[in-house]
Design a protein that fits this description.
11-stranded mixed sheet, globular, single chain, alpha/beta, 6-stranded antiparallel barrel, 22 strands, 25 helices, Rossmann fold
């Protein structure tokens, strides 16, 4: 590698400057370089480029611009490029030590030679090819075509130490989140996703152009077609065992998927079986296979180059002689990952249920407040508590409407002169009306207390599922979405806090993915954030942010405006993925919570292109900020955004 410059001027253990020839000007901003100091090497990153002409310095410029002086006549000659020189300002990352960087204790020497850090060395620093790490994309460098280097993220840091993904609309947050979910899912993470716009409802179904490309090659590659058929039959066998144990011994998946004439008592069971049928199709099987290849081969799949991706897949399967049985036995993939259902999508609301055996009075009151839209005062609270205790003594067990109607009967029995009577009746009636409206709109009631256990428990009924996606696009208004978020997270937190569920006993971790966080957990003091549902959602997410890590509860928080999100959960995010941000308030907020965010990073955030982001935090192999580009997600896009003008002209 030939040298690109020479260190000059003042240098220290934190920064240095080097001079370089003009033809490298376009190749240096954000480039990684190293200095060969004979006994050791120093790695640095170019943070700024400076041009200077000493003959046009501030001290001499006055002479050249004054009228009627000889300077004004000769100044045009002094502007010549031959008098200009170019310098690069660098931050020191540290001393290169094998595949790691250690703190630099000796200053950089003036006059030392500077070189580009080659892709291999750059990748060694930021990529760790462990199966439990994520391989989401490439490091962004100015000469990336010649210097393409992968980076990795520590999966366990993402799901237990919290992660924030922020940036302006249209800058790639959804793609980044979708890619992250793909990477986590195929490694065994379990998530509950709150999806206000239906962006992730197609998670796990590979894009049509690749499945069509593969289908067209089945005639020439029967081995691949047979491998996929064997994988499908394996899933049918595994899932049938689960179906017959958990749902109905008479149900056969292969028959239901063809005829769909089986009657279900439980709507959730029906939705899950329908999801299983969908995941037996080619686009889901291919997604599983491509992602497993990525993990085992330490490669980053490129969905936009189907020819190369097909070639890589063929070479990968050839290692296992195109035998699914051989792949299952020899690949080392945990079997539970091979047969997990990728997702279950639900449009749901929390049913308000009372069970004397296991309930929390204040949890029920919070739900009534959330769905009525009114706070329950201390005076009113006394009535509710008495009624709940009365129902408890009678061992009342019923659900939803009947339970609320029981409370309504008791409220109406209060004397007319009671000052709380009218307000209590109004709150209960408003909660009943809200729940009835959701039910009429096709939103299903769900008991999240039982559902969380079924999803996360080692032997839970729905433990077979990787991702629960709550599609909130038809759940309106937003306060209802916050009510659902509160209910789901509260029940999970309570069960892990009480040790009823525990990762130490083999129960699953849960990562809560909160899309549009400024809407679901808004900062206090803006919009309708004093609504009871807003307070409840914000408070329970705070508890997960501050207490959930050791329990195995994590957060991924996504927002276009980080300063509008409740600051406590964001401040607990140990990894930040930042797309373009230009609002001064957001930039200031990001800098305050970002561990390794520098002034140069803040300036770069104003300019980064769509899809490019800056990562900082504990999920990186080295605790330095890194500019990256995530791969495009393999999954199909979510719900299509409206295109009214295109639709009009395409008629």
């Amino acid at each position: 590698m030939s040298k690109i410059g020479t260190v000059f001027g003042e240098a220290s253990t934190n920064k240095f400057t080097f001079i370089f020839p003009r033809d490298l000007e376009q190749s240096l901003k954000n480039a990684f370089v190293y200095i060969d100091m004979r006994d050791y090497k120093v790695v640095g990153k170019v943070v700024d480029i400076i041009t200077e002409n000493p003959l046009l310095s501030p001290e001499t410029i006055k002479f050249f611009v004054e009228k009627r002086t000889i300077g004004s006549e000769i100044s045009k000659y002094l502007k010549s490029e031959r008098f200009m020189f170019f310098t690069a300002e660098c931050e020191v990352l540290g001393e290169l030590s094998g595949n790691d960087i250690t703190a630099l204790t000796k200053p950089v020497e003036t006059g030392a030679d500077v070189y580009f850090l080659e892709a291999e060395n750059l990748e060694n620093l930021f990529f760790e090819g462990k199966a439990y790490n994520l391989y989401p994309g490439y490091i962004q460098t100015p000469n990336e075509e010649e210097n393409l280097a992968k980076f990795s993220l520590k999966g366990d840091e993402i799901i237990t130490m919290h992660c924030g993904i922020f940036g302006m609309t249209g800058m790639g947050k959804t793609t980044t989140t979708g890619t992250l979910l793909e990477e986590l899912t195929i490694r065994g993470a379990k998530s509950i996703i709150f999806d206000p716009h239906g962006d992730y409802i197609n998670l796990g179904f590979i894009k049509d152009k690749f499945s069509d490309f593969i289908k067209d090659r089945f005639d020439e590659n029967k081995y691949l077609e047979n491998f996929l058929k064997d994988y499908k039959n394996y899933l049918i066998e595994k899932w049938n065992s689960w179906v017959q144990e958990k749902i109905n011994n008479e149900l056969r998946l292969e028959i239901f998927c063809e005829e769909k004439n089986f009657k279900f008592e439980n709507r959730l069971d029906e939705f899950l079986i329908q999801e299983m049928c969908r995941e037996l199709e080619l686009d889901s099987l291919l997604f599983r296979l491509i992602m497993l290849m990525s993990v085992l081969e330490r490669k980053i799949p490129d969905i936009d180059n189907e020819v190369e991706l097909y070639k890589e897949l063929d070479e990968f399967l050839r290692k296992y002689e195109y035998s699914f049985h051989k792949f299952k036995e020899e690949s080392g993939v945990p079997e539970e990952i091979l047969y997990r259902v990728i997702k279950l999508t639900l449009a749901a609301y929390p049913s308000i249920e009372f069970d004397y055996r296991d309930y929390d009075k204040y949890y029920i009151l919070n739900l009534i407040s959330a769905f009525s839209g009114e706070e329950i005062t201390e005076a009113q609270e006394g009535y509710f508590i008495n009624w709940l205790e009365e129902l408890e003594n009678h061992r009342y067990v019923d659900n939803n409407d009947n339970f609320l109607n029981e409370l309504l009967i008791r409220a109406k029995s209060l004397p007319d002169r009671d000052r709380s009577r009218a307000a209590i009746i109004r709150k209960i009636e408003k909660a009943i009306t809200t729940l009835e409206t959701l039910l009429k709109n096709g939103i299903i009631p769900i008991n999240n207390k039982n559902f969380i256990t079924d999803f996360a428990s080692q032997n839970g009924k729905y433990n077979i599922i990787s991702n629960i996606i709550f599609d909130l696009s038809d759940v309106s208004p937003e306060i209802m979405q916050r009510g659902l978020l509160y209910d789901v997270v509260y029940n999970a937190f309570s069960k892990y806090k009480s040790k009823e569920l525990s990762i130490d006993k083999g129960d699953s971790q849960i990562t809560f993915v909160i899309e549009e966080a400024r809407v679901l957990i808004p900062k206090s003091g803006i919009e309708d954030t004093d609504h009871p549902a807003s307070k409840a959602a914000r408070n329970i997410v705070r508890r997960v942010a501050t207490e959930g890590r050791k329990m195995g509860l994590g957060l991924i928080i996504i927002s276009q405006k980080p300063s509008a999100v409740d600051n406590i959960p964001v401040s607990q995010c140990n990894t930040l993925i930042l797309h373009r941000v230009i609002n001064p308030e957001d930039l200031s907020f990001v800098k305050s919570v970002g561990e390794s965010i520098s002034e140069e990073d803040i300036e770069n955030l104003k300019l980064v292109e769509r899809g490019v982001s800056i990562i900082t935090g504990t999920a990186l192999k080295i605790r330095k900020s890194l500019m990256v580009k995530f791969r495009n997600r393999l999954s199909k896009e979510g719900r299509e955004h409206p295109q009214p003008l295109k639709s009009l002209w395409d008629r």
